Write the structure tokens for this entry.
Amino acid sequence: MSDTRPEKDTELDGLDFIRRIVVEHKRSGRFAGKVCTRFPPEPNGYLHIGHAKAISVDFGIASEFEGICNLRFDDTNPSRENTEYVDAIKYDIRWLGYDWADREHYASDYFEKLYGYAVQLIRAGKAYVDSLNADEIREHRGTPTEAGRNSPYRDRTIEENLDLFSRMRAGEFDDGAHVLRAKIDMAHPNINMRDPTMYRIRRHHHHRTGDTWCIYPTYDWAHGQSDSIEAVTHSICTLEFENHRPLYDWFLDELGIHHPQQIEFARLNLTYTVMSKRKLLELVTGQYVESWDDPRMPTICGLRRRGYTPSSIRKFLTRIGVSKTESTIDLSLLEYCIREELNKTAPRVMVVLDPVKVVITNYPEDGTEYFEAVNNPEDASAGTRSVAFSREVYIERSDFMMDPPKKYFRLSPGTEVRLKHACYITCTDVITDDAGSITELHCTYDPESRGGGTPDNRKVRGTLHWVSAAHAVSAEVRVYDHLFSTVNPAQVNEEAGENWLENLNPDSLVRHEHAVCEASLNEASVDNRYQFLRHGYFIADAKDSTPGKPVFNRIVSLKDTWAKVQKKEGV
Ligand code: ATP
Ligand code: MG
């Protein structure tokens, strides 16, 4: 008997549901085997990591299937849009590593064409001018369980509609006096199909078309037709547009123009983060953060300033994949992706965030020597550097304890530790000021231990990082934590008076303004990322760092401390 099981379709192996659809379209010859996608941002805010997901899907699929991906600004709402956002969006997409070549489009380029399509629908008796005001339209719309009611203006003649619509365009009416609506079905179970608005009168200066237009298409009217004009084959968007698909299909079918396939996927949500543009704007305008590119923001410019690399973000997006199921991804996965990359690439350096001075009393007053330090134990090709050592060095204040508990392996009176790359020291004296706080630690060093020696096979338990006082460069180090201290900060009960802003983490930024670093970091640029031993991964701040007074941002800690906290608290 022959085996009737279907052959395994290896071409689909490992593909997500969108890519499977594209493969099937290519096979069936739909769209003549072509693939054209687009990324359609509204220029009313900065891009965030959620947009990066859409970008990676749109551009990624186009390039994998030998297609093209357009950049199209859906600039239909001039009141909230401006060119600052357009420029920032373009910069961010390029930085992420994607390219739209010369295919930079704007919905506003199609305003004339869209107007013509609207006239076509009026002529076909499929659109009408309504003179109800916004509140009345809302009242007539009905509810999910209750049918809507027809507007008294719904049966205007085609001639009357054509006349009114052209006078709307000519500026004869006040803002809000009339709208153009599609004539579909006020009892339709899908509210989006209840005669949706296509045009509004709005005297707003547009960042591209100036004052040419006083009527503007709604997003729902412009979006699908813009895709069609661009001959988009796969119009990929997020799930909230699933309910709009029947409307987009209706428009395209009534117009009889090229009909892209819309495919919806689940938005990216991240823990400890808000992603709505409105909320991000509120964080900026309310000065809860410094700016759109504050390193704690989930914006692309914020992640860039924080020190994330495009490759780590792309890796993250590949790892999470695409699906139709809403979920919230753990922020620690994004952190894991950058940590994993930097572990391989970042040179190790020594920086002391909260310094206390150590005087090595048996070391020559004016002596200096240089120790060889490995740049990256994960990467032999990164080589070594020489680190200056002298009689006075700084160590972390928290690396010394007067009365240490058992199993404290750092410095305390009488104990011996290793200074990384340098030598063993033993604490002999503790100098305090009048208030009792420690100003200096006096130590002796063992000359036999220099450069990694282990005199008498003596083992020391603690190894401390340090910086030579005579060679130190003072720096500011900014240690960031999650911007919010709750897992889903946007999930609040507003009726009970809860406010998502109360979930902000008061410790999301800790500034160490008197840090000291190795001289090699004096001219650190934003192109270099470092591992500060025992502190995590850092980058020079693109805005505030200057040679002579470097400022560093912590990109990510060395270990996932947050997961540990959660475990302990049983969250
Ligand atoms: P708005 O409320 O202003 O429409 P938006 O986040 O949808 O906000 P757009 O500029 O319209 O902003 O987004 C451009 C594209 O990015 C859209 O196709 C949208 O579906 C997609 N997108 C936005 N947020 C996410 C997200 N969190 N995950 C995945 N895709 C997203
Ligand atoms: Mg949108």
Observations:
- The chain has a mean pLDDT of 94.
- Residues 40-42, 44, 50-51, 53-54, 237-238, 267-268, 275, 277 surround adenosine-5'-triphosphate (ligand 1) (CB under 6 Å).
- Residues 15-265 form a domain with the Rossmann fold fold (CATH 3.40.50.620).
